[in-house]
Amino acid sequence: MDAPNPSARDLRSRLRRPGDALPETSIGSVPILWNNVDVEELRLGTSAATIIDEIARLGYDGTQFGLGFPEGEELRTVLAARGLRLAEVYAALPATADGLANDALAIGRERLRLLHDGGGDVLCVALDGSAGREERAGRANQPGTPLLSDAAWQGLATVLHTLADETIQAGHRLAFHPHAATFVETPDEVDRLVSETDGARVGICLDVGHYLVGGGDPVEALRRLGARVTHVHLKDVDPAVLADLRSGVLTGFGRTVKARIFTELGVGALDLLGCLRVLADRGYTGWLMVEQDSSWSPPSEAAAIGRRVLAFALAVVGSEPAGR
């Protein structure tokens, strides 16, 4: 890979101006926009080199580990040449209503290895999509939805604590990501996850888009969970597609992703300014990861929109009087 034009680094400074809210945060991109991990037909075949170059060119500070990315020292070198950091590695742990699969901890440990070898910051852990919950995505609070048993909750907490301890020992942080179509989707399930785990070890990655799909209010959740939220995915939701999902016109999370339920920041149902105000009020300093699972536009256009809308929103919140 050739090093990018130095203007890419200059753009980062122009997108973070004096007076903006959340000056200590870093802003990352999630490469699922180019190559979707979950829906094979939405993998565009874009090379890792192109994706990383685009993330740098568009003014981001870092990236999630993506499909086909190099590992270890090669990844460190490639990112450093572009002024980027490895923000996170995502780990999806398979589960049923009876609990985690036998290989869940091994999967988490392998993702931790990728994070550590790549010099990354956050191990972002979620449950993988599961039969029974895939069909109930966006409607998981309705009767008849399969739920984790009490024993499964206890087993999940045990694995998360084990993985968190190993992550901390390796010099990184772990954050759990509630996710649509999994057994931790609804606000009640998020609260149960919080109550079952040690906040000093297991942070929460609040993906505001998934929380919205799961029936929650992201602004209220950020306010209520406070410092327990240590990592944030910023994702907007198309209200028309969400309405179709909740009414049953659309069923299945994969189908809704293909219908582009997640849209560019600023044009959906998310109260982006409200989310940023809560984070600013508590002095949040973690990553803000701009994420969009799929787009009707070319991926780089969508990623550019997300970065610039976020820049505008941070300027707006930063200009508001204290105690607004």
CATH class placement: Alpha Beta
Q: Rounded to an integer, what's the Rg over CA atoms? A: 19 Å
Overall morphology: globular
Tally of separate domains: 1
Annotation, overall tally of beta strands: 12
Please write the string of helix (H) and strand (E) elements. Answer: HEHEHEEEHEHEHEHHEEHHEHEH
Q: What number is the mean pLDDT?
A: 95
Structural class: alpha/beta
Low-confidence stretches: none
Tell me what the CATH architecture is: Alpha-Beta Barrel
Strand order of the largest sheet: 1-2-3-6-7-8-9-12
Classify the beta-strand content into a percent band: 15-25%
Helices, by number, come to 12
Largest sheet: 8 strands, parallel, barrel
State the distance separating the first and last CA atoms.
Answer: 47 Å
What's the CATH H-level homologous superfamily? Divalent-metal-dependent TIM barrel enzymes
Relative helix content = 40-55%
According to CATH, the fold-level topology is TIM Barrel
